[in-house]
Design brief:
heterodimer; A: 14 strands; 12% strand; B: alpha+beta; 7 helices; 24% helix
């Protein structure tokens, strides 16, 4: 095995300083199989940080580990949809073939099995990531083959036996992931001529670009819906010698995978959108913050950037315009849902724990490296590139009053045609269900766990910011799926993904989950259900960032729309039921003593 | 520095430009409960107990600057209930055994529990398994009692600016940890300061736990906030 001190020294030399701590840790883990306390001490020493700060970063991110994760680290998605698609059997198959339980590594240090939050493959579940390589549509037979391959010491990449569609077949990706593009619209998935958007922007003034964006009424596609033009204007007007454009490619909301498809098929459009943003706000540097789950696209994206430099679509004097300089680097995440929050993403991109910042100041004033920064979603940048080509008015002619243009939806769950749909804003849920073959739906989770769970009576509602807002995740839940089980999966997710900074989110979500379990286990009463609802409001009302402000939504919206499911689990006619099971508690001791318990009155 | 005018619960207040709502309220004799806030340290906004309503939106008064014309709601039943809930969450999230705690009577969490007349927390106890680290020569870090206010993280650093305390892990496993190397080198003064910053009994300076007898401690005779509140 490599010498730890040398590995750390080389990694630090490769990346330079503490702002690249995530990359340094990733490389050390790749070489050493984990980031031990000794490794943390060495990294801290090289970077002149305190050990506890490095420890804090290592332990914050899901894909970093202080304990050995195995030569092959298997991360099996445990999203709710993975569960619907037979994850349990796949997990059992992995455990049977490897002889080790999830959360553990085989004694020979070869294979580790781990759960992981949604990896952006809901349209082809069950799926897993092994040493960065994605395996989709897993079957027990595939698991057998994969484990045999690992035992034979084969490279994870060579265990991929089939290839997906489109650019997934490119020599630089070679992945079995499928795009599953089901519906193309006019904005994002229409033909795009590389270079056209930046050329057009170069012929316009900076103010002209912002004006066009404002005319389009484009709203942020991550889910929050802040007007993009306004964001660019604020950032442009902020005082600063240096500004940044950051692309949020941390697509972590369970059930969304549309950015994966953009990154695979039209990264050129995305990068042009970033360059246009740079032009508009006066920034010459962009950062693509790519979630660790999509590391399989990194080489490909770097090559796309290199090609774009060669053809002068990014780089110096873009489109022949002197002074239009813009380049892009890729920063990998390391597994943390909260980094989808823009200020947490910035912290993470700076090599720290991905904890949201207090605001004010906003990123437009104080962002990446303390400089004015615009952070936009992958899809927003693509829409911006199209808007510059076709004009703001053209764009604003589509959609609804408050939601212009089109939206990429990631549809998964109990439907026939999961995949990516580009639809005009304002489409009803019912129409979408018909197009996706999800007619049997009893519930639809719009906007992922942090969104809204609606029932049949609401299927006439429309997908747009004015009605049902979504960052793109649509999970269809059929009659065969246990809806409250889905809610429990979502709460598990939020408890795990809370950054831990503020009390209501850190403690509150754990409390909500525990109360939910009391009800699901049949120990709840009407009082418990009412308290659960009240407590949801406290967590929402007191939490610091969007995570805790929305994490109670799965419980709240299902109590609202599916109260009967909860009521069916309640004990009737009592005010209070204890979760404590006396018979179970005394079982062992009674057996040992050879006595029969006296449970009278219990 | 120019003065600005704003209101808290209808009472006209003045603030210096850039002053946070918490600081301005204090200067105007109005108590907003705080736990993670400590004068002189950069606000962190971890506990959220200072949450106020501004224009219908909840925000932490310790991180939000007062602005001209701002209408702040503070001591209203809805917020007071949620603040009490924060205190209760902290009690069930950790393992707080007041009767045996060296900080009893000097503890801000306990004092807020009294102020909010908390009898038993409304939430179920989570009974976490937490670490006690007494390896440093001058301090004990008992994370059973820690509320992760980050005062120690913010306030105690080495001469070259390195953190002696830091956050590790995430979610409900998030915890404060002392840097083993730097904590071992803490000076007498730093150890004393760390204990003073700590609002609860999580950081104790060794050998001085009961130097002030119970009954003569800060909150034994007067409720927390009585030094601020003028009514």
């Amino acid at each position: 095995m490599a010498n730890l001190a040398d590995v750390v020294k080389q990694a630090v030399k490769r990346y330079g300083d503490a702002s690249r701590l995530l990359d340094i840790i990733r490389d050390v883990q790749a070489e050493m199989g984990c980031v031990s306390d000794e490794a943390i001490k060495t990294i801290a020493g090289e970077l002149k940080l305190s050990r506890v700060d490095v420890d804090g970063v290592v332990t914050f991110y899901h894909f970093f580990s202080k304990d050995p994760v195995g030569k092959y680290a298997v991360y099996l998605n445990n999203s709710a949809v993975a569960g619907m698609k037979g994850r349990a059997a796949i997990a059992r198959a992995f455990e049977k073939e490897t002889g080790v339980k999830f959360g553990k590594t085989t004694t020979d240090g070869l294979i580790g099995l781990f759960d992981t939050s949604c990896i952006g493959m809901n349209d082809q579940e069950p799926a897993a990531i092994i040493n960065g390589v994605v395996f989709t549509n897993l079957t027990e037979a595939k698991v057998k083959d994969i484990v045999a391959g690992m035992k034979a010491g084969k490279d994870a990449g060579t265990l991929v036996k089939e290839q997906g569609d489109g650019q997934n077949q490119s020599a630089l990706i070679k992945s079995m992931v499928n795009n599953n593009i089901r519906k193309k619209g006019q904005v994002l998935l229409a033909p795009f001529e590389s270079g056209a958007a930046v050329k057009k922007a170069a012929s316009m003034s900076q103010a002209g670009v912002i004006e066009e964006m404002k005319k389009s009424n484009l709203r942020g596609r991550g889910g929050a819906g802040f007007p993009t033009g306004m964001k660019w204007e604020f950032t442009g007007k902020s005082a600063g010698d240096k500004k940044y454009v950051v692309c949020n490619a941390d697509e972590g909301e369970p059930g969304t995978f549309k950015d994966r498809v953009i990154l695979t098929e039209i990264p050129q459009m995305l990068f042009e959108g970033m360059a246009i943003a740079g032009y508009a706000i006066g920034a010459d540097e962009g950062v693509l913050y790519l979630r660790a789950e999509y590391v399989y696209l990194k080489k490909y994206l770097e090559t796309v950037l290199e090609d774009m430099r060669k053809s002068n679509v990014i780089g110096k004097n873009i489109g022949g315009k002197s002074g239009f300089n813009f380049d892009i680097k890729i920063q990998l995440g390391a597994g943390a849902y909260v980094c989808g929050e823009e200020s947490a993403l910035i912290e993470s991109a700076e090599g720290k724990r991905g904890q949201p910042r207090n605001r004010p100041p906003f990123p437009a004033q104080y962002g990446y490296m303390g400089k004015p920064t615009t952070v936009n979603n992958v899809e927003s940048f693509c829409a911006a590139a199209r808007i510059i080509i076709e004009g703001g008015d053209w764009y604003a002619a589509m959609g609804t009053a408050q939601s212009k243009g089109t939206k990429l939806l990631s549809v998964s769950g109990d439907c026939e045609k999961p995949g990516v749909y580009e639809v005009e804003f304002g489409m009803t849920v019912q129409t979408l269900l018909e197009e996706t073959g999800g007619r049997n739906a009893v519930a639809v989770q719009v906007g992922g766990p942090s969104g809204t769970c609606i029932g049949k009576k609401d299927f006439g509602r429309r997908i747009c910011f004015d009605d049902l807002a979504t960052g793109g995740s649509i999970i269809i839940i059929g009659p065969q799926t246990d809806l409250l089980g889905v809610v429990h999966n979502f709460m598990d997710f939020f408890v795990e993904e809370s950054c831990g900074w503020c009390v209501p989110c850190r403690a509150g979500n754990a409390i909500l989950k525990s109360k939910l379990e009391k009800i699901l286990h049949g120990h709840g009463t009407e009082t418990d259900l009412n308290e659960l609802e009240d407590w949801c409001k406290i967590v929402k009302g007191m939490s610091r960032c969007g995570l805790g402000q929305t994490s109670p939504n799965p419980i709240l919206t299902t109590i609202q729309n599916f109260r009967h499911l909860y009521e069916a689990k309640l004990q009737k006619g009592v005010d209070y039921a204890t979760e404590f099971d006396l018979a179970a508690a005394v079982k062992d001791s009674c057996e040992a003593a050879g006595r029969k318990p006296n449970l009278e009155g219990h | 520095m120019s003065e600005i005018k704003f209101t808290i619960d209808g009472k006209e207040c003045s603030a210096k430009q850039g002053q946070t709502i918490v600081e301005a309220a204090k200067d105007n004799g109005i108590f907003i409960p705080v736990l993670c806030h400590f004068e002189g340290l950069k606000p962190a906004g971890t506990c959220r107990i200072c949450t106020v309503k501004v224009g219908g939106r909840n925000m932490a008064a310790c991180t939000t600057p007062a602005t001209a014309g701002m209408v702040v709601e503070n001591a209203v039943p809805e917020l007071e209930n949620m603040r009490k809930a924060i205190v209760e969450m902290l009690f069930v999230e950790g393992n707080h055994m007041c009767p045996t705690c060296e900080k009893s009577g000097n503890c801000e969490l306990q004092a807020l529990g009294y102020r909010y007349q908390m009898l038993a927390p409304r939430f179920p106890y989570l009974w976490p398994v937490r670490d006690v680290d007494a390896s440093a020569p001058k301090i004990i870090l008992d994370t059973n009692r820690c509320i992760q206010c980050l005062r120690c993280v913010r306030g105690i650093t080495t001469a070259d600016g390195r953190h002696i305390f830091g956050l590790v892990s995430r979610g409900d496993r998030t915890a404060i940890k002392a840097d083993p190397e730097l904590a071992a080198q803490m000076s007498e003064d730093q150890a004393k300061k760390a204990m003073e910053y700590c609002p609860v009994g999580a950081i104790l300076k060794k050998e001085v736990g009961f130097s002030v007898p119970i009954g003569q401690r800060k909150f034994d005779s007067k409720p927390i906030g009585s030094d601020v509140q003028k009514s």
